[in-house]
């Protein structure tokens, strides 16, 4: 059942993609028209390629500039047009600004100094490596019109409708089936009552076996059966009680609701960010560390909205709202592009809780042993909501220590001890257990 | 074989007719266990409506309910930083070098911080002087988290803001300045270049300002003597590692004498190398740490000490000294003098007699010897107080001359004998401000309490001795709204610089001579021009700085500048011959009381520290108390008793003691072996009343008897009714006559005889042949091959161990060892993972006794003459033996654990899995060393045990790498497995082998005397691997065959006479 549902979801997104693509085709046609028009107005300008421009923009400019949004630097849509209209500055001015803004400011250029002061006296990074063609490409990209909101909305609407249809048909089938069963049952009851009526009418006596003992009495009289049954019952209940007891305190699958919906799927999966970029202390410390908000803000200063795939439950608005929560917590005023100083630490719900008496060190496993985070934490890059993947029981630890070979290559610490121990145990490669990894005191102190 | 002394643990054991010892040999308890109390009342038992069945029902129900309630896991929140400080990585410790300078303890230390909070004090190995943290310094980190600290400035009991404080105090100070009255700064010894400069700036601003330096336990006499002779108000420095003969007359230089910090150098000279070690002769009245470590200890009363010193002077330097001494003492003095003379420049003499004459003679003797251990060119500056100035201040206050009194780091209402006069004077001042951590005896009387930060939250600098500087830096942001005295001085002088900038300025201009301030801050210490060379070129520079301090101290003496030379001249006027005459004339009738600082408590400023309260005194092994130490003979004469009760605990009589009309009632009495007849002792630091939890209000205040800053007083004593209950950890186990626990030999035997003679391996019988117990043939177990990987061993050198107890507190701090309180200690439920056993012995060769005994003829003669013979406990030799889990390779505890909670690691450590333990205590019963500790209660978050683990602030000191044990589990020394594991992990991460001597435990790292050496014996380059091969090496109770991983080095005493 679950699987089929998943496939439905996949279908719906595929459908949506097709829809958007169709719409995009139209857009591009329109855009290129506009593009052609704009290009024709600037006579001396080189013609730029907006597609190349987009790539260049994303690699060089996007961390400080948005198209429609003031960030560290000003918004850049139609910047060339604007500068030409409002300030009378040409592309030559822009090129010298881009290649070395500091020099331009120093030269005493009025507008350059005005901009410099307006943006808190932070000089723009110089890009001497950009050629005239590159600049033209970027400007071409910035000269594009913003895609209209309606269209994306309608596209999303279509997708939603599609998936909604899928839901309805499913329910319909189920409803029909239920109706069918109900009808069948009704029919059977009717048939029985009719037959009884017939029998009554015809005077046929339905023979009733009164002498036979009720089944439970017969069962109770047979002592052997009772014994076997009670032993069986005891064993079964024992099995279940044991099973119940053994999972007390084991929180495998624990998936609490967090104060901010942080999607590991988007960060580690879609964007492929290395786990240790955020959980940096896992390399050197016993704790992996929950990243502090300043780590989040490294990227989220410029990543102010979500532009990836969305679902019915997790819409763009939803994700953007979560980013706003982050801003509120970090005390970041997005419109002013500065910190207010009023921060509100996030109270995350801790998922992996080892008891106090068990010592675990991340750096031992991550840095020394080179174990992938996923080995214990599961496919985090697929988790929309983080959950505890492993049972974190002692048995689970021990099992791994028994099987896992110690990574000794290029580690001076292991050189001598590994040589001697592998000779002692007569094996080529040592497991963590053979290295002493099963001793009580290694984890309990 | 080793010397065949009989060691004993209590005076009770020497009393052959004692019924207690006899009973204890056969029974576990002396008295019947009072089962009648709960079983005897048959009516009550039968009348009860609760049947046994009901009881079981309730138990069953509550167990089931409790386990059901446990099924639901709690939701745990994790809150990361908003902006994570660059230097903090959660889970990784940071270390900062800083300095403690609280007026009593001065030391360069390393502070371990976790997630920004200091959790442990360690030694700063870069420091060439005062780099060792003693027990009090180790415990000082807990003072930071004292829940009774003042949290902001206060006026009349109510919190005010610093703004109000500034406004009001500046206004009043200006009024006082205009009125022409004095402004007096009454402070601890700071020994701080920047503070001296600040104070002189304050003087310039407010004109009629006097700075009075006050040390609670005064060294004024020594300072006066040194000043008269050398012109600097300082103390001579001693390096005992350079001495081959050390004679001490009443100086507990291994304790707190002249600021302490001499023990690590002393220990270096005590370990026999190439057949040589120093010879230490101690003349003293109280049994002190120094006396306990001495090769020869001569007990004599304080007035006899003066005579002895005069005689020593006449014998070593020349001249004659009158005065009577008992014959044996006279002989000992002559021996000491001839040994000193023979040693020449390798000899050194120190004295603790608070008398300018005595201190002058000590300086003269060392000068005459040209002692290498004696250093006056780079003297100690960590005591600068002046008795005269304090007395002058009190009379000025009472005559209304003092307009404002600003106090910092002092508590005169507690530490002054004439506190009442001080209180009266205080009431007459127009303005009184106390900079204090606490609302203590003094600050609660002052108009303003200026909440001061702990030293771990402060900036500062110290000059321990000329040219040896140290910096103090904050290791945590101030927990409360506090301000340093120095910061307030900056405010009052309208200096807008921050204190750290100010210190940086002072250092750049006067101290550093062009070297980096950041480097000095990183190291925590800075030596200008090298330790040895205060030579011509550096002298000028040093002079300016020292000059500032001299000036300051001179003013501190209460002298105007023009008087300074005159005063110096009068002091200098004392000639050696006059001093000898004055000292030799010293006599005393009746009992003499010697007041002394106790190892754990010092001057009492850390009285609210539960670690120090529970720290058993190295000599008496009593915790949670101070007491009158009395010799056995005097006790008998006065009708004072010590006795042991059913639980094995110690009780002592009460006595009322009177000095000059001041009486202390109900002082508990402890009969102290080695106490000189005719003398009694009482320690400072107890009897505090204000600013501490009720549990810590222990003992009596000896400062009340510290009249005229004289630590020796004539006293009259009378027995009082009732018995005091001591929490003494001494009599928990009898020794059972097993003399090989502490092996000891003399230097002569050590040098001349074979190892088998003085350190023989015990033998057992195998097929009627004597076989060494270490032989595999007599072993029940198969040996595990430990040659691969690490194999940890700890070596404890009984020669180097002075018994200072720093390791005990370090172990407490590292391993979250709980404090259990006086009642529980009394019930033998103390939790110390590491204890320092102290054993008394009867001396082997007591010639007079032997002769007398040999001459006994007939029954009548033996009865009378044995009775006359001096009792052996009157002057015992003492030895210290730190004992922790011995980590036996064939551990008896492991085999009896029914749930395998304790097991052996291949690295030699005996592991203890607390979560597996069910609390049968079989292991503790089967442990021959009695090192296992059982958690009878939950000690954390339990109001019954209201110590640091019961409040949020106090729990900040807990080490996050070590679990806090719960009720009902056994615990013990883990050989700091968390530290060895960390060292291994660091090496693995760096991809290198572990360096030799990189492994440490908390105790070995804390041991500044080098007695404890820890390491991997499979690394042949490590120190400990060499120590396993040492001739002196033996294992505790080796004949049991437990194969411990802790080893001891036989104690060697230098008994060479003459």
TrEMBL record, chain B:
Please give the InterPro entries that the UniProt record associates with this protein. Answer: 4Fe4S_Fe-S-bd (IPR017896), TAT_var_transloc_signal_dom (IPR030948)
Q: Name one Pfam family in it.
A: Fer4_7
NCBIfam families the record matches: MoCo_extend_TAT
| Membrane-spanning ranges | none
Task: Look up and give the organism this protein is from.
Answer: Mangrovimonas yunxiaonensis
Q: What is this protein called?
A: Quinol:cytochrome C oxidoreductase
The chain positions of domain 4Fe-4S ferredoxin-type read 792-822, 876-907, 908-937
